[in-house]
DNA sequence: CCACGCTCCTGCGCGC
DNA sequence: TGCGCGCAGGAGCGTG
């Protein structure tokens, strides 16, 4: 499941291959994604030059003079640079062709999306109301304090709410709360400022570490596939039910919050 | 405004 | 070894 570090790694991986390049054609083999790929996508995109690739939360924004392609990898989406003649495999939904190379979008579970917009992408309804980037200065304890005020929902659920802060998926929410020593069930509105500061630092550290790890394993190009891959062996609690807490040795507990698997140390996290 | 639950989908792990 | 069941999960959206 691509989370923000994986999306950022994907962005950095593909950008050198397509920045400044002009789309020669678009092949849509399977329109079925979270929202059906528009029949007009090919004509909208063909002939456009990709000026740059931005990221907002887990959305990648492929900017052109005429409009922007908003791309979300969903749960199982991935992007690869392939020779345009490489035969497609199962779940290869879309090729965006640049000369002899193609940017190939693959998505078995079809939770991803490709949307074309001619308006200011920052005003697009999917982008407009997103919370701050977790690695920016806007994301700080005071912001969390305001967003959490009077909220009784578990802090983990709100930490994963993209309207409060973008890019913190299930795995990193678990990890950040562990590092901050905060119980994931705790009512968000009942966490004092100093602990929110610790949470902010933990979110930054967890995501920053993962991006750095992705950067170091970046090969000839990139992937954004399944699990955190390169980061997997650095997980302290996620997926470690009944194993020893790396901090105190108590067994890691697994519960469900908001229908999502939640792992924490009942000793270290209060 | 807020809380919560439903939904989409397929690969994979597990139990038998 | 094979089969079938159920889980996993981002995030938009509907409901109360």
Share of helix among residues?
25-40%
Low-pLDDT stretches are 215-230
Largest sheet: 4 strands, antiparallel
Shape: elongated
Note the beta-strand portion: 15-25%
Spatial strand sequence of the major β-sheet: 1-6-7-5
SS class? alpha+beta
Compressed to H and E, one letter per element, the order equals HEHEEEEEEEHHHHHEE
Average predicted local confidence, pLDDT: 88
Q: Whole-Å distance between the termini?
A: 28 Å
The number of helical runs is 7
Total beta-strand segments: 10
**Roughly how many Å is the radius of gyration?**
20 Å
Q: Could you give a quick summary of the protein structure above?
A:
With 270 residues, the protein is of the alpha+beta class. It has helices at 4-18, 41-45, 125-128, 141-148, 155-159, 170-180, 193-217, and strands at 25-28, 52-56, 59-63, 68-72, 78-83, 92-98, 101-106, 113-117, 253-257, 260-264.
């Amino acid at each position: 499941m691509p989370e923000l570090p994986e999306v950022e790694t994907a962005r950095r991986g593909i950008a050198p291959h397509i920045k400044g390049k002009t789309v020669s054609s678009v092949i849509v083999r399977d329109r079925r994604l979270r929202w059906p790929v528009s029949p007009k996508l090919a004509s909208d995109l063909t002939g456009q030059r990709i000026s740059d690739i931005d990221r907002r939360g887990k959305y990648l924004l492929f900017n052109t003079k005429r409009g922007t392609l908003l791309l979300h990898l969903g749960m199982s989406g991935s992007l690869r640079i392939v020779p345009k003649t490489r035969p497609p495999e199962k779940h290869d939904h879309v090729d965006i062709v640049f000369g002899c190379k193609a940017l190939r979008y693959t998505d078995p579970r079809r939770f991803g999306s490709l949307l074309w917009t001619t308006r200011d992408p920052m005003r697009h309804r999917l982008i407009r109301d997103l919370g701050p980037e977790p690695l920016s200065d806007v994301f700080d304890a005071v912001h969390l304090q305001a967003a959490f005020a009077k909220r009784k929902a578990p802090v983990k659920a709100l930490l994963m709410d993209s309207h409060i802060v973008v890019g913190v998926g299930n795995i990193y929410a678990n990890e950040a709360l562990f590092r901050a020593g905060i119980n994931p069930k705790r009512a968000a509105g009942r966490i004092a400022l100093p602990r929110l500061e610790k949470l902010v630092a933990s979110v930054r550290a967890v995501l920053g570490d993962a991006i750095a790890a992705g950067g170091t394993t970046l090969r000839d190009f990139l992937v954004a596939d399944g699990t955190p891959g390169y980061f997997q062996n650095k997980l302290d609690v996620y997926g470690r039910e009944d194993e020893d807490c790396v901090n105190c040795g108590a067994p890691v507990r697994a519960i469900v919050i908001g229908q999502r698997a939640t792992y924490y140390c009942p000793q270290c996290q209060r």
